[in-house]
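Notes taken during the Thursday session

The instructor put the following on the board and asked us to keep it in front of us for the whole hour. The protein is Cation diffusion facilitator family transporter. We were told not to look anything up and to reason only from what is written here. First, the residues (333 in total):
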Amino acid sequence: MNKQNQNTKNNFSFQRNVAIIGVLLFVGKLVAWRLTNSDAIFSDAMESIVNIIAAFLGLYSLYLASKPRDEDHPYGHGKVEFITSGIEGALVIFAGIIIIGQAIVSLLNKNILDRIDYGIFIVAITAVVNYVLGYLSFKKGKTENSLVLKSSGKHLMADTVTTLGVVASLLVVYFTKIYWIDSLVAILFGLYIIFVGYKIVRKSLSGIMDEANPDMLRKLSSFLNEHRKPTWIDLHNTKIQQHGSHLHLDAHLTLPWYFELREAHKEMEELVKLIAKNSDRNIEFNFHMDDCKSFSCEICQVENCSARQHQFIKKITWDEKNISQVQKHSLKN
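Then, after some discussion, the predicted structure tokens were revealed:
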């Protein structure tokens, strides 16, 4: 089993454990709700249902993402992570709306809470477990470059904030007997949950739409500037797509026009291997070789070039903007 398959298997096992623990935490919150009659705890329990659904969606997406590419999916199945992440974000927003709605109902009905101490103890335990699980999920997601694990981790940690808000409101109610405080805190954290859900949805949409990632392009251009060869006259029309934990890199490399095909291909392979060797992710490359033009002489650093038509004037430092521009580099653009 290769490293990529092993990582996928580990991610799947981890997400399965998240789903199982999510079910147990949901049951614990339901018990706390039945004991206390707290609408805030009930809202938190309903938010846990979203955790469970999201966890199983994550399992399914990790299963699909692990499948090799085929005739119908030449780039693989990795983009399913963006779809399930978007669904999870939408569910988070929906949970926030439920929390706010239930809190308003609680305010209107003036509910009286019972056995608050038991509720505080049970809900506090679920908060600790949720946070630890969320932190581990987010950390593993960053290590494995898994959007599913990262969004799941953010969701669980956001749920922890909500649960702590419930605990705080229960503590205040326990000592003051001012029951509407419980509902007010629930409304505030419901708004926070909606904001977190929006960010998850926004991130998933950017992946589905292949939105440009300036940070990736910035890191790539900075790295290549340090290892750039004079014969690599310019790098343009660079695009990076994310497919699950994989990346797809398109770019045009401008080389001296008089290079033979074998020599030009060797230069391109050298650049590809340089990027692949220094990346922590699997990358599929699609490089196109362009020949230099007369205006390229002004930025070309090849010394003693017998085909030079203009004097060298200035070196163009690669950055996230010029390596992504469509045209070859020149002093005019």
